[in-house]
Amino acid sequence: MENGRVEFQPEDLRGAKRRGKESNLIVFVVDASGSMAARDRLAAVTGAVHSLLGDAYQRRDRVAVISVRGRQPEILLPPTGSIDVARRRLEDVKTGGRTPLPEGLKLAADLIEREHRREPGRRAILVILSDGKATGANGLTNLRMVAHDIAQRGLAGSVVIDCENQSRIRLGLALELAKNLGAPCISMTELNAESVTGVINAI
């Protein structure tokens, strides 16, 4: 652990398995702003979605993906257990623009609450891939408020995957977001489908 972050490498997570056969709703909130970095994050999430749904018959998991970019976040993939649906919805996703992260988390929280009313026995896991930056007026203040609200609702376990550029001066905003959510913050220098799936299976 370093500065409050859990330092994971993909090889550290190999062989990790979730215990039991409970079904899960896994909601990815992925920062799709920027260019190459956003593409890397989306590629990792897409691969993780396919991997998780590949053995969904064992637990009947469902997966959703929310893209955070531009003026408003977008539900790229509504909750589904179908690999075919996931593949179609996640092809040719747009990237770039601003980062409406508070709105993205609010959208995720509302989705989780709706699904909880439909299936109260299904465990929800919120996975946020971001550097914690939030554009717009009062972006960071709004982000803190939304994160506290999600933590208070208690409908989902959360994990933040810190995607801040390692070569620049670190702002630690992802770690702050994780603390406000009451969630672990995992720093990964090599983000890929295997590492993201490993994180999910280790929760």
UniProtKB/TrEMBL annotation:
<protein>
    <submittedName>
        <fullName>von Willebrand factor type A domain protein</fullName>
    </submittedName>
</protein>
<dbReference type="Pfam" id="PF13519">
    <property type="entry name" value="VWA_2"/>
</dbReference>
<dbReference type="InterPro" id="IPR002035">
    <property type="entry name" value="VWF_A"/>
</dbReference>
<dbReference type="InterPro" id="IPR041702">
    <property type="entry name" value="BchD/ChlD_VWA"/>
</dbReference>
<dbReference type="InterPro" id="IPR052989">
    <property type="entry name" value="Mg-chelatase_DI-like"/>
</dbReference>
<feature type="domain" description="VWFA">
    <location>
        <begin position="25"/>
        <end position="155"/>
    </location>
</feature>
<comment type="similarity">
    <text>Belongs to the Mg-chelatase subunits D/I family.</text>
</comment>
<dbReference type="InterPro" id="IPR036465">
    <property type="entry name" value="vWFA_dom_sf"/>
</dbReference>
